[in-house]
Design a protein that fits this description.
11 helices, 18% strand, alpha/beta
Length: 251
């Protein structure tokens, strides 16, 4: 099974990368679960026709009983199983605890036994890699990590923090950084900055997503680029990333 956590600074495009990668894997005939690990709970929205999914934490706050899988999972484009952890009431509690609570619930519900996925993708906020947000790294849920970054200063700063957090667990057999997905923002000297970071960190750039109006236009319609136009240049970039992961796992 492919188990990948996709990290990046908030707003850097990690949800776009995750959803399009999930869609590309689904088009390749794979059964995919995508778990959004961000309090904004918008990771899966473009797999679901622009319709938000009730987050697990919202369900737990608003119901007396624990949910079943049918209450917190919805299938989207290509049959992708979509889940959102959500977070606490704004201003109260720790968002990272929401991730831990959701993962514990999914374990109790035996989600992987029921759905038997070929790939599981975790979309994780990487601004602060605290205990909760580091759960996919340290609890054995993910095996590989992709870091989404542009050449912007704060995006690279977050990318370095993510790498440092992963390095802290290096001797425990947890997830390892597989590579960088370079999501272009067209800032000055962007390619040089990202390549310099990648070289210093010892992490290969394994995917590049050009800045494109096409992504914005399809997302405005509640779709991934894969759903909107599988033959586009941008879709080819996501298919390339999907095919690389499949090849590495003998799929």
């Amino acid at each position: 099974m492919i188990k990948v956590a996709i990290y990046g600074k908030g707003g850097i495009g990690k949800s776009t990368v995750t959803a399009n990668l999930a869609a590309a894997l689904a088009v390749r005939g794979k059964k995919v679960i995508q778990i959004g690990c961000d309090p904004k709970a918008d990771s899966t929205i473009n797999l679901l026709g622009g319709r938000p999914l009730e987050p697990v934490m919202n369900y737990l706050r608003e119901h007396d009983s624990e949910p079943g899988l049918d209450d917190i999972v919805r299938q989207g484009f290509g049959g992708v199983y979509c889940i959102e952890t959500g977070g606490p009431t704004p201003g109260i509690g720790c968002a990272g605890r929401g991730i831990i609570a959701t993962f514990n619930l999914l374990d109790d519900l035996k989600i992987f036994d029921k759905y038997e996925p070929d790939a599981v993708l975790y979309d994780v906020l990487g601004d602060v890699v605290c205990g909760g947000f580091a759960a996919p790294i340290r609890e054995g849920y993910a095996e590989d990590i992709l870091i989404v970054t542009s050449g912007e200063k704060m995006a690279l700063y977050a990318a370095n923090n993510i790498k440092t957090a992963v390095d802290n667990f290096a001797d425990r057999g947890y997830a390892k950084v597989r590579g960088i997905v370079f999501n272009h923002r067209n800032v000055e000297n962007e390619e040089e900055k990202v390549n310099a970071f990648a070289k210093e960190a010892g992490i290969p750039v394994i995917g590049e997503i050009p800045r494109s109006r096409e992504i914005i236009d399809f997302e405005d319609r509640g779709m991934t680029v894969i759903e909107g136009d599988q033959d586009s240049e941008i879709s080819a970039r996501f298919f390339g990333l999907a095919d690389m992961l499949l090849a590495e796992h003998g799929e």
